[in-house]
Amino acid sequence: MPDEPMATETTTKTDAKKPEKKKTGGQPSASEESAAPYPDMEFAQDIHKLTVKSVGVDAAFQQKVFQKIAEELENPSLYELLETELQVTTRILSKDDLKAMREKHNKHVEELEAKVEVAKESAGDMEVMDARVEIARFAAKSLTKDEALEAYKKLLDLPKLSSGKKIDALMESSRVASFYGDTDKSIEFIESAQKLATEGGGGDWDRRNRLKVYRGLARLLERDIKAGAALMLDCIATFSCNEICSYPSFIVYATLSNLLHIPRPLIKEKILDGPEILSVANDIPEVLTLVKSLYDCDYKAYLHAMVEVEPILQADRYLQPHLSYWMRELHIMAHKQFLDSYQSVTIQAMADAFGVSVDFIDLHASQFIAAGRLSAKIDKYGGVIITNRPDLKNAQYREMIQKGDLLLNRIQKLARVVDL
């Protein structure tokens, strides 16, 4: 089979019922255009905001979310799951409505399965695949997580499915798992797709590029921020994954993750002056203010920007699980950058620069020093912080000696095995 992105005949017939995809930035992509519209990951963000009681979430917002589940998705299991999680009763759908919806879905699945059997008997492999894709995408929209993943498994088990289409199916499966908060399963699907794309030689450049975004977001959830930052930095100019997140959201992820890890000169080049990032500057002013104030060494504005950024982190399903980590690392960055300019500085001077009290600086600096995150010591009697920069050459020398010892030990073990 050729490696065109998955599409079905029935998809084109029902286009009028589907919501139009919002183009929020990035590059056009053939495989993105044909990606399943469900599960809607922007809607997953709305559900997350409800569950964490994010700023701006009210009764009207909750009503809107449940109405979408009832009217557009027609997903009774998701409706009941969210009511249970939030401990609310919305009364948009009655028990009879939910029962009738399930019966309708069961009948529709039976009809779709019948189409698969007809395709097996009187049509070719392509028609069988199209029928399986239709079932999987219907399940992703209106059935349970397990039913959707089982439908995608049946699609992946087709004997003549090409590597490219397997990658598409695995990426859609990862979205289903991610939508329901099953991070481990989602990452498992992404790793399987990556293995196909590298070892199996499957997938064109476009699929590999989109897969890189999926992997970058997975690394954020695993708190492997450095690896995720590198992956997302590569995709800023070629982003074509609006089915997994909007372009402004992706820029937020790429900006914050790289702020923690790239050198100061690259912050200016890649973030503050990056044309792709500037194109969405009006959508993410708080995040860019945070970066600019750090780059300009305006620590008072930086702390204010952190306060503005915290609700953004809280409301995002990729950033909220590690909210305390993000806030701590942003604090440490500012402390490190400030202290790098001094051999010693009074706590009062640092407090004035940050626009906070001496006790605030004393508390946070002492915690970071005790945790080994700041190379400094506090002279409480003199009211100063003395930096203690490690000798880089000596550290590299010690590291080389340690690694050399390990290598010699391994060589000796190998020699004994060879002698035997």
Can you describe this structure?
The chain has helices at 9-13, 30-33, 41-51, 59-73, 76-86, 95-122, 125-142, 145-156, 163-179, 183-198, 205-221, 225-235, 247-259, 264-272, 275-278, 285-295, 299-314, 323-339, 347-354, 358-370, 392-419, and strands at 344-346, 376-379, 384-387. The chain has 420 residues and is mostly helical. Strands 1-3-2 form a 3-stranded antiparallel sheet. Strand 2 and strand 3 form a beta hairpin. Helix 8 (145-156) runs antiparallel to helix 9 (163-179), helix 12 (225-235) packs across helix 13 (247-259) and helix 17 (299-314) packs antiparallel against helix 18 (323-339). The longest helix is centred in the first third of the chain and has 28 residues, at 95-122. It is globular. The model is unreliable at 7-23 (pLDDT under 50).
Question: How would you describe this structure in keywords?
Answer:
21 helices; 3 strands; globular; mainly alpha; three-stranded antiparallel beta sheet; 68% helix; 420 residues
* CA-CA gap between termini: 53 Å
Strand content: under 5%
Largest sheet: 3 strands, antiparallel
Side by side, the strands of the main sheet go 1-3-2
What count of helical segments does DSSP give? Answer: 21
State the secondary-structure class: mainly alpha
List segments where confidence is low: pLDDT < 50 over at least 5 consecutive residues: 7-23
Measured on Cα atoms, how large is the radius of gyration? 26 Å
Record field, number of beta strands: 3
Average pLDDT score: 89
Helix content: 55-70%
Which sequence of SSEs, written as H and E, runs from N to C?
HHHHHHHHHHHHHHHHHHEHHEEH
Shape: globular
